[in-house]
Amino acid sequence: MNKYFRFILPAIAMAFLFTATAGEVSAQDVLRKILKRMDDNNKSLTSLKGDIKMAKHDPVLGETDLSEGELNYLPGKSQKKIYVRIDWAKPFVEHLAVANGQYVLYRPKEKRAIVGNVDSAKGSAKTGGALAFMTMSKAELSANYQVDYIGDETVSGGVSTFHLKLTPRTATSYKSADLWVDANGMPVQAKVVEKNNDTTTILLSNIQRNATVKASVFKISPPKGTAIVRG
């Protein structure tokens, strides 16, 4: 019996090896196709409008803050060249504009505007940074992240997507990010995991690709009497 197992065990091990290799090749083929679709979508995208939801989760406190609003977006040649305008309606009114790596977050009820650099943004202002993941080119993704295909998943609203995990190749201010990409290569959901395990998840719906979006939308001019605070 021992002699039998001595010969059969290597065969079993080889079977597992070839099965894993075949699965890896298959996953890589799927990943290449997804990235190709994303690249095609990215190259043809000139603007985007839609509804946006954001969930910020604090695992220590076990609390999740939810926000809903409308999005206007113009892609750029790099993350610092994108233009974002989000008009939050829930749980309270806020207006966020991101342009050339800078942001303005205006809170009418508080009569206050927070301005600063996107890289050091906190709270609602971090949404612009999360959105940047959703329009990266294939070259940017491959150069800056280890991209892994997690599987097929359905996001809120019933949209079928491919789930990708992005692990930074160099040190960043966050641990990792996840993307959920639809069949057309359009990322519809993104999640950023901070080093303290806080997460920011944004979901897009009612997407209008290449709709007319005026550049003036991305300029917020708070009224006289508004307190300007550096973020």
Summarize the structure.
The protein has 231 residues and is of the alpha+beta class.
What descriptors fit this protein?
single chain, 231 residues, alpha+beta, outer membrane lipoprotein receptor (LolB), chain A, 12-stranded mixed β-sheet, 12 strands, disordered N terminus
What is the N-to-C order of secondary-structure elements (H for helix, E for strand)?
HEEEEEEHHEEEEEE
How far do the termini sit from each other?
Answer: 72 Å
Taking the sheet with the most strands, its summary is: 12 strands, mixed
User: Mean of residue pLDDT?
Assistant: 82
Measured as a percent range, the helix fraction is 10-25%
Number of helices: 3
Structural class: alpha+beta
How many DSSP E strands?
12
Form type: globular
CATH architecture: Clam
User: Beta fraction of the residues?
Assistant: 35-45%
Overall number of domains:
1
CATH topology: outer membrane lipoprotein receptor (LolB), chain A
Which strand order does the major sheet show? 7-8-9-10-11-1-2-3-4-5-6-12
Rg over alpha carbons: 21 Å
